[in-house]
Amino acid sequence: MKKAVRHVPILLSFLLVGMAGGPTGPSPIPLRVSDACWRPLCNIENPTLQRDLKQALRKNRLWRSLLEKKKMAVGVIDLADPQAPRFAQINGRAMMYAASLPKIAVLLAAHVCFEDGTLQPTPPVHDDLLAMTRVSSNSAATRLIQRIGLRRIEEILLDPRYRLYDLNAGGGIWVGKAYAAAGEIHPDPIKGLSHAANVNQVCRFYYLLANARLINAKRSRQMLEILSSPGLHTKFVGAMEQIAPGAHIYRKSGTWRVWHSDSMLVWDELWRRYILVSMVEHPQGERVLRELVPVVEQILEPKNTILVANPTVSDSLRLR
Question: What angle do CA 61, 75, 84 make, to 5 degrees?
Fold first, then answer.
């Protein structure tokens, strides 16, 4: 016999334990999804989320124009139910100049080198990782790139274990130059950019990280810690500080001239558990990215919650 259910307003459900499919308290990232339940990013595309995202973005005249010209790209992964994640993207495979956002590739490369012993995690290296990631220090990024080497970073991005740059799938994340005025340049093979990315692969970076599948669980946790506590209060972070100041944010952004990019993994104790990535080529890109956050949140926020008598995590469901 089926258990009785009743509807509760979303504010009331905040007081109940486990209603978003996970525990309350400190952030439980990275997630623990078994190999049997694990689904790669290409297998979690969701038609409903895709439709809702497209409709919401096209309501804004400027955004619609930028999307049509492939000067704006957006990707969203809903992780509210870790066993059934949902992914949607618009212009997800469009390569764009991404300024400092590709520094996440340097973060990954450093931890790959920690793992294989070719780079030692000394205090100066750790300080540079924090400065490069949290306040986007170009000098710290350049020192790390010089320690690791551009060729080694390229090998890691192309490595089948990570595949964060894929020539057969529109490219991805690319660092082909130190963040300094001079130095060698290895442009990306598709568009010839020195610091580039596409939304698809940045989403995939965060998705693997959130699931402890980037290198291994230990290294994933270390990278998440470095991505936490962002020191620049712009774009996505500026919006989140107004909307949900208590949410955990793991973030890397980039800006140069008219190119603006941002990426974040958000986690709080109710429904706000998602990855958002966007890149914009427009003088007002900073404002576009700030205003994008509440639009995406409106799509993801559940309108109702179903409660099951004596609920367990597996019994709790959300209506969309």
Answer: 130
Domain residue spans of the chain: 5-319
Q: How confident is the model over 42-86, as pLDDT tens digits?
A: 999 999 999 999 999 999 999 999 999 999 999 999 999 999 999
Helix (H, G, I), strand (E, B) or coil at 34: coil
Tell me the CA distances in angstroms from 88 to 20, 44, 225, 248, 254, one per residue in order.
20, 9, 26, 22, 22
> Given the DSSP bridges, would you call strands 304-308 and 5-8 parallel, antiparallel or unpaired?
antiparallel
29's tokens:
């990232």
Q: E strand or H helix at 296, and its extent? A: helix 285-300
In angstroms, rounded to a whole number, what is the distance separating the alpha carbons of residues 31 and 266?
13
Measured in whole angstroms, how far is the alpha carbon of residue 271 from the centre of its chain? 17
Sign of CA dihedral 300, 304, 306, 307: positive
Count CB-CB contacts under 10 A for residue 306: 17
Q: Measuring CA to CA, which residue among 4, 12, 77 is closest to residue 270?
A: 12
Distance of alpha carbon 197 from alpha carbon 164, whole angstroms:
9
The pTM is what?
A: 0.88
Provide the CA 154 distance to its chain's centre, in angstroms: 21
- What the block records as the tokens of 5 is 């259910």
CB 213 within 8 A of CB 221: no
Residue 14: DSSP 8-state: T
Query: Which residues have CB under 8 Å from 277's CB, separation 6+?
Result: 74, 75, 76, 199, 202, 203, 206, 261, 262, 263, 264
Instruction: Spell out the CATH class of 5-319.
Output: alpha beta
| Of the candidates 169, 201, 197, 174, the residue with the CA atom closest to the CA atom of residue 185 | 174
Report how far residue 299's alpha carbon sits from residue 235's, in angstroms, rounded to the nearest whole number: 19
